[in-house]
Automatic annotation (TrEMBL):
GO molecular function annotations of the record: cytochrome-b5 reductase activity, acting on NADH
Protein name: NADH-cytochrome b5 reductase-like
A Pfam match: FAD_binding_6
UniProt source species: Geospiza parvula
Location of the FAD-binding FR-type domain: 72-174
InterPro entries noted in UniProt: CBR-like, Cbr1-like_FAD-bd_dom, FAD-bd_FR_type, Oxidoreductase-like_N, Riboflavin_synthase-like_b-brl
UniProt feature, compositional bias: Acidic residues: 1-12
Alphabetized UniProt keyword annotations: FAD, Flavoprotein, NAD, Oxidoreductase
Cofactor(s) for this UniProt protein: FAD
Residue ranges, annotated region (Disordered): 1-21
Length: 186
């Protein structure tokens, strides 16, 4: 391999998506899971490398600049207030762009990314704000002494920027209706 070819190979290797470590998976069955996102990004990288065209990787960057929550990539949200409710429980408020709402349905959660002692961790949290709350969302979090993400969360203060993706999960619910899926099989 010539010097040029090996420099090119190194360039491509630097752009290759990194396989998530088990600590990054929040374990709550997200769709897509971080491993699905990795598989998608890897396929995109393999296509771009085969065609020697780095512009084919641009779509991923454009999406992560979007200020709205989405399940595939993490989006930055600013902490607008921190309220301590009990010795170990805190309510955090985040700004949403303009007057937008998360519009989560019943039981849906979002996934937080944090880095603790150099280790990337992901955990699920269920917003408590009304689904049509405009311009903000809130989460109520119990912080554990030995908890990895808890250590990171306890450092948050107004103005900090943290990364969320979602929504995931939820229950099918309509007032005064019973879901056929929830009835026992005979
Ligand atoms: C779908 C979903 C939604 C969730 N929504 C919320 C939410 O809205 N608010 C919220 O506070 N949490 C919520 N959780 C829990 C959250 O995802 C984390 O598990 C929690 O914050 C602990 O993470 P950690 O990294 O700090 O602790 P870890 O590092 O994962 O755990 C380390 C230690 O912390 C303690 N610990 C951790 N979790 C628990 C627990 N559940 N009970 C007792 N001890 C524990 C234990 O001592 C454990 O050994 C949700 C989880 C799921 C799956």
């Amino acid at each position: 391999m010539s010097d040029n070819e090996s420099a090119n190979e190194e360039d491509w290797l630097a752009l290759r998506p990194q396989e998530p470590s088990p600590s990054q998976c929040c374990g709550s069955g997200c769709k897509p899971c971080i491993y699905d996102v990795y598989e998608k990004e890897l396929a995109q990288w393999e296509r771009a490398k085969a065609m020697q065209d780095k512009s084919l990787l641009m779509g991923k960057k454009e999406q992560s600049n979007n200020s709205e929550l989405n399940p595939d990539t993490f989006t930055a949200f600013s902490v607008s207030s921190v309220e301590q409710l009990t010795e170990d429980t805190y309510q955090y408020k985040f700004e949403l762009p303009g007057n937008s709402s998360l519009h989560l349905s019943l039981g849906q959660h979002i996934v937080l990314r944090g880095v603790v002692n150099g280790l990337e961790v992901q955990r699920a949290y269920t917003p408590i704000s009304p689904r049509n709350a405009e311009g903000y969302f809130e989460v109520l979090i119990k912080c554990y002494e030995a908890g990895l993400m808890s250590q990171y969360i306890k450092t948050w203060k107004r103005g900090d920027v943290v990364f969320w993706r979602g929504p995931f999960g939820g229950f099918p619910y309509q007032p005064n209706k019973v879901s056929v899926r929830s009835l026992p099989k005979r």
